[in-house]
Each structure stands twice: as structure tokens, then as C-alpha cells.
Amino acid sequence: MGKSNTDSYIQIAVDGPSASGKSSLARALAAHYGYIYIDTGALYRAVGLFVYRRGIDPGDERAVAAILNQIKVDIAYTDGVQQVYLCGENVSEEIREHIISRFASDVSAHVPVRAFLLGLQREIAAKNDVVMDGRDIGTVILPDAHVKIYLTASEEVRAMRRYKELSEKGQNVTLDTVRSDMRQRDLKDSTRAAAPAAAASDAVTIDSSFMTPAETLAAAVETADRKICKILKNKKYK
Ligand code: DC
């Protein structure tokens, strides 16, 4: 049965830099609590892919803003796995190409792009218990999220993780390229004027450099359980 307007849904925000393990943690947390997992980076990647295919300079805010009305981004779930649709086409694989990471980061700096994707993100969170991962979830998208986690890891560990992930998919990259592209992208994401990537002041930081995925999940669940228990005790829920 659905909830009335006065019941609130639980929101867990997971933010952090590239390859910090956000999506693995957010997916595991969603499975743990039975919530919906929303990978917001995939939405920016879909916009980046559209711009890439059109041959538009992703840094040209005016040109990017001008084609937003031609873009339709949707998400759906197949066996619990998020699928991203760009104008009806499933682009879930293609948006993971290394080149699209840069396009996604470039287009995400533009205010019109952030405004374009804001409604979709908030709409989903208004109708479901969610675990949402991104860069500005705890600060801008869901500032009142019940649980906020900032997941980080050392640059070396993150570069190695991303390198392995891309190599396993058969993408032709070197560790050095991955490291320097990642460094540039994180710097750009955290210093842009519009909704820069940042930890919310009330976020709990977890450094996963020397933690296994299971240990990271356990640390996050400990934090989330404490907060969610308090909420459930204080209000009618479900
Ligand atoms: O998490 P990711 O690597 O798939 O994200 C791709 C880019 O999208 C990232 O470089 C910055 C941007 N992004 C953002 O600006 N805000 C978000 N909530 C999520 C991603």
C-alpha cells in the first residue's frame, strides 16, 4: 500500500569522489534495506553521451543548454538493476565509456543541466524509500536526507579501482591516464560554481581505502541504523 502525503519516505544520500565505491555501497545499502537505488551520475552521463554524439563542445554552456529540450532521460529497473534510457534507447553500457566520464563532468558544471535533472531526482525520492548516490545529494538534491554518508578513499586506491573496472570491460586505458583524468575531473567537480561536489556538514565520512566492500557496508549500516531507528520511533511509518 502507498503512503499518504504526510508519511515520509526514507532518504539515504551517499556522496563522494570518483571511484570511491559509492555505487557499490549505495547498491548494497539499497538491497539491505529494500529501498530503490538511484545512481545520479548515470543521468549526467546520459546527457554527456547525447552531447558527445551530437559533436557539441561539452564546455559550451549555451550550446548544451540549447539541446536540453531534445533530451529525455528515464530510469527503469531490470532485476533491481538501474537502466538508463536516453530518448527511449537503453544506454546503460555506453555511458560507462571512459570518454563519457569527461563529457558528464563537463556538462554537469552547467546550471541548466543541473536544473534539468533536479526534478527527476527529487520526483523519485518523493515516491520511494531511496538510496541515492552522487556529488551533491546531501547538500542540494536531498538536503533533508535522513542519512548522509560521504564515502572517500585515497587517490591511488580510487585510480586502481577505476583502472581495473575499465580494463575488465575491455577498455584500452593505462593506470596513468585513468589517474590523471580522475584527478582533473574531481578537481573540476569540486570547484565548479554550481552545486560543487562536497560533503554535507551533517554527513558521516567513511574512508574505504583499507576496507573491503563488506566492511564498508557494515560501517554504513551502523550509521544508517542509528538514524533510521530514531525516525521510525518518532513517527508513524508505513
Ligand atoms: O558518479 P559518476 O562518475 O558516474 O558521475 C559522472 C559525473 O557526473 C561526475 O564527474 C560529476 C557529475 N555528477 C554530478 O555533478 N552530480 C551528481 N549528483 C552525480 C554526478
Instruction: Give the strand content.
Output: 15-25%
Helix content: 40-55%
Count of runs of 4 or more consecutive helical residues: 9
Ions, cofactors and other bound molecules: 2'-deoxycytidine-5'-monophosphate
Global mean pLDDT: 93
Total domain count: 1
Helix/strand class: alpha/beta
Number of strands: 8
Largest sheet: 5 strands, parallel
Looking at the overall shape, the CATH architecture is 3-Layer(aba) Sandwich
- Intertermini distance: 8 Å
CATH class: Alpha Beta
Can you characterise this structure?
This protein is an alpha/beta fold. It has a single domain (11-236), classed as Rossmann fold (3-Layer(aba) Sandwich), CATH 3.40.50.300. The chain is built from nine helices and eight strands. It has helices spanning 22-33, 41-54, 61-67, 98-108, 111-127, 137-141, 155-168, 175-191, 213-234; strands at residues 11-15, 36-39, 73-78, 81-86, 89-90, 130-134, 147-152, 204-207. The chain has a five-stranded parallel beta sheet, sandwiched between helices. A three-stranded antiparallel beta sheet has the order 3-4-5. A hairpin with a 2-residue loop joins strand 4 (81-86) and strand 5 (89-90). Helix 4 packs parallel to helix 8 (175-191) and helix 7 (155-168) crosses helix 8. The model is unreliable at 1-6 (pLDDT under 50). 2'-deoxycytidine-5'-monophosphate is lined by residues 18, 40-41, 44-45, 101, 104-105, 108, 134-137, 185, 189.
